Amino acid sequence: MPSILIVGGSDAGVSAALRARELAPEAQVRLLLADRYPSFSICGIPFLLSGEVDGPSHLAHHSARDIEAAGIDLLPGHRARSLDPETRVVQALTPGGDTRDLRYDRLLIATGATSVRPPIAGMDLPGVFTLRWMDEALAVRRWLERQRPERAVIVGGGYIGMEMADALTRRGMAVTLVEALPQILATLDPDLAVEIAVTLRNEGVEVVTGVRTERIRETSEGLRVETGAGSWDCGLVLVATGARPETTIAAAAGLETGHHGALRVDRHMRTRFPSVYAAGDCVETWHRLLEDWTYMPLGSTAHKQGRIAGENLVGGAREFAGTLGTQVVKVFDRIAARTGLHDRDARAAGFDPLSVDLETWDRNAYYPGAQKLIIRVTGERRDGRLLGAQILGHQGSEVAKRLDVFATALFHGMKVVELEDLDLSYTPPLSSPWDPVQMATRHWTWTLTHAGGSR
Amino acid sequence: MPSILIVGGSDAGVSAALRARELAPEAQVRLLLADRYPSFSICGIPFLLSGEVDGPSHLAHHSARDIEAAGIDLLPGHRARSLDPETRVVQALTPGGDTRDLRYDRLLIATGATSVRPPIAGMDLPGVFTLRWMDEALAVRRWLERQRPERAVIVGGGYIGMEMADALTRRGMAVTLVEALPQILATLDPDLAVEIAVTLRNEGVEVVTGVRTERIRETSEGLRVETGAGSWDCGLVLVATGARPETTIAAAAGLETGHHGALRVDRHMRTRFPSVYAAGDCVETWHRLLEDWTYMPLGSTAHKQGRIAGENLVGGAREFAGTLGTQVVKVFDRIAARTGLHDRDARAAGFDPLSVDLETWDRNAYYPGAQKLIIRVTGERRDGRLLGAQILGHQGSEVAKRLDVFATALFHGMKVVELEDLDLSYTPPLSSPWDPVQMATRHWTWTLTHAGGSR
Prior knowledge:
2 copies of one chain form a homodimer. Chain A has 455 residues and is of the alpha/beta class. The first copy, chain A, contains 11 helices and 25 strands.
């Protein structure tokens, strides 16, 4: 059986290792882990820092013991330094500072992503953090515990920014969130993102959009964040402005890169070198609707790609079916979810989209506790095909899994009108005879027909 | 434009009327309503009787005013007595006791269903009720308010039985539920139904299964329900042993009946008579997986069939896509949902099913408030096709809409293994990188492969 080497012990790497061993119990599988936290949930970090989750070990999808029990040779603290695809050797730096040459028959590069470091002066000051790996998370936690800052500035209004605003508010801190773009949550349409900004403000978070952060300074009191629209004093700065693929050794070895500098792979997760696969946040991602490559570093995708790579490393031929960009975030008690393309994306991709909103109840309106949902359906005017959906709602309204009905419909290329045919579950405390998903698609069809769907 | 007559003002009838007028605003649409409660939510009755919902008007999906505002000529208190498909006349009894001949160009029969009246002696005693129409619901409410019974016996452990056990317990009554079959909730597998029985018992409901109710007597104290395994004294008896199609005038006019005596229609909701359509709880229902006709009186289905009939009454050609038997019920804080075929159904239909359970968390296990889900996946051993799913969980675990991911997958005839490819939403407070739905399908595939799926 081939000797398999995996570089990277987060979602994609560990998924691949487990899957390879499951399918080929006699395969030798070695996994290089740069730190000491295999398979930990990057998405869980905000909940560690909010105090909702106890210790880092709780954030692991699989413990080191589980991984080793599956027969995987886990090499913690081993940082890959170079790759030679000709001789099939990865050179790694061991925890002791030695170098070690590791020969492989098949290699998986699962080096993940690192935080974008925007050109802000003062990024290296104590008290300024980016947040992606566990070491960073633990550094933030130490800072919070030792310095007990009362105010924080978060630079960046994406998912991590949202969740950290929630987390730090929960800890009793005053939080200012500064986003350079005109809106937070660029994955949502601007007017829906405004609803989440309102939620943040109602919870006491100061939200500042369209303002570029220029510099962070040390003051006698702590830190000062200077922007084009004023400055904020605080004791902690989190810079959460996105992720970029970690491809250093792969690019140096001659692997091709594409979107956002991510590694090029095919849908079998193969690179252009025989026997070298790549998966997770370091690779380009096939988009099922765009029918093109994109960059979308998401945990759910990394797990899928890792599993597929794991199959193919031991002789499988499974293809990645593609992402739809399905995402959900919880901000205090508000839930925002989206899948597929929104209007702007769709237009950019050459579609002729129509987006229609419906505000309705999450269950029969007469049932106690009914809460409002806003559902936006995006469809193609010419052939009626579903292109995407966005839902805003509250906890308890099954927002995420309602969105998944759209995601499943999108997966199958359904027309908007066809969603009326789905046999979805109904009981008055949880839905209505037409699920809100279907009310929204009916309203889309009605609008296209009656209102002419004018632009 | 044709003159359209609709007999029946519940879900299917009103849906059809509204859809016909929406598509053909000049059509004459008359709707015969036997009582004075158009478009009321049959499924909402238990919540009216629990006191969670105020008055009957809150249970209406559409008010009489809305229906009339849509240009529909609503004839309340008009009971159809006969139909002549040759002369195209329906004779109705007016509220004043006169008869009235109503001519139509196209007719929709949407007479719904009535409660099954099992052969129990004493069914007609005061304090013994069936529960389907609003008059019956209001009669129960009056009885509850005037007699203030402390104990109730519910005969029948289906959805209405469950919800009424919950409702009456909520009112402070002591409830005994007697089911003749060996299990409650026959739409679930027996061992899953037991879990719901445990929930009922934990809430103080006495659950008796496998016991036939023989007789109800009046005593000096109230009522006594006598069964093959003892008798229960109480002040209220609800008999909820299912529904049968109301087809009296249709059958007398020569329309064909099939399963459970329901009217035969095609997938356009047409009967064998030109210009006579039928929809809702009075008709046979096309089952998408069985590819055969069945009887499944559900509100969600009645709304769909009504809408399709409404389109076709004004010249459309839309087909009913079929039911999957998707259903959900809330029993106290427990949710039970099912779609497709369970093992027994599948075997009876000639499939070779394998059913596999997974017990897992509704969100990342580390996130506070995580609750257990039990997911049972049923698939065909020979070709791996998904046949059905059952989920048990709690409120707040998005059980119903997780089930709908299965329902949407079933609609498209997906193989179990293909559900791994779905791009479902993930954030730690609401799910895991592989949604529990996908963990369960993975476990099914693993079981088929590794455990040989032995019977």
